[in-house]
Amino acid sequence: MKNLIVRTLTGAGFVAVVVLCLLLNKYCFGILMVGLMTAMMIEFYRMTMRGEYLFSQILSILAAIVLFALTYLYRGFNFPGRLVILAIIPVFVVMIDSLYVKDKTDFGKFANIYTALLYIAVPVAMTNFAVFNSAGQYSGLLLLGLFIIIWVSDIGGYLFGMSIGQKYGKKLFPEISPKKSWAGFWGGLLLAVAAGVVLHYTGMLRYPLCHCMILAVLMNISGVYGDLIESQWKRYYAIKDTGTIMPGHGGILDRLDSALLALPVGIIYLVVLNVL
After folding, report:
1. Helix, coil or strand: residue 148
2. Domain count of the chain?
3. 152 and 123 co-located in one domain
4. Is residue 192 situated within a structural domain?
5. Number of separate helices (H) and strands (E) present in the chain
6. Are residues 129 and 144 in the same domain?
7. Is 107 in the same domain as 167?
8. How far apart are alpha carbons 4 and 9 in whole angstroms?
9. pTM beyond 0.70
10. Residue-level pLDDT, tens digit, the chain, 276 residues
């Protein structure tokens, strides 16, 4: 019960910060996303590299910030879209830096430098497409709506999983995450779709109802996979959490693991519909 209270309070505080930053203005949004992205990359590198190749880790985080900044300027400040390609230059710098690493006895870990860029930096940079329209006008309501679907899905998965899935039914991926159950999956899916319907009628998702429901289904499924992918990383490195910054949840990466797949999938779906 104590852990549940701590988890609830911490989660509520995190949600409050995200909601406030998204609703205030584009500058708060930018600061929030860069902060979350940096924290997740630090946690990922701490998990996979344990302090090795520290200079390369810093270069990679700077490359991620450049990618986000260029996408941010392109979507929100009429920055020429063709110049977003400049984001590849810091990545090349990271690659060149690898040539000068003297101790290559455990060089295989260096691949994690690039993994974090694809796994964390690219999805975070894509959020710019959800908050800026084609004219560069900012609104955090759509991205907040996508986060709400993810949060409601997570809550549904947790409640149904703990109340039903631990006693009845089959596990989802027992070799990766023993606590994940099919009951939790279906519970999360049900609440995610319900959230999509509510967001449609409240005007936060201004799309036909069928698309809001499809969006919720796609984000729920991809979010579950995002959660399992991070669980696989943690199981391989034999750790429970990627950090301790959020009591009851672990690290920022633990809290946003599902969002790293769910947000890009949701944004891609809306782009395919030609509404972003």
Report:
1. helix
2. 2
3. no
4. yes
5. 12, 2
6. no
7. no
8. 9
9. yes
10. 566 677 788 888 999 999 999 999 999 999 999 999 999 999 999 999 988 889 999 999 999 999 999 999 999 999 998 999 999 999 999 999 888 888 777 778 888 999 999 999 999 999 999 999 989 999 999 999 999 999 999 998 888 877 786 677 678 887 888 778 888 889 999 999 999 999 999 999 999 999 999 999 999 999 999 999 999 999 999 998 998 888 877 899 999 999 999 999 999 999 998 777
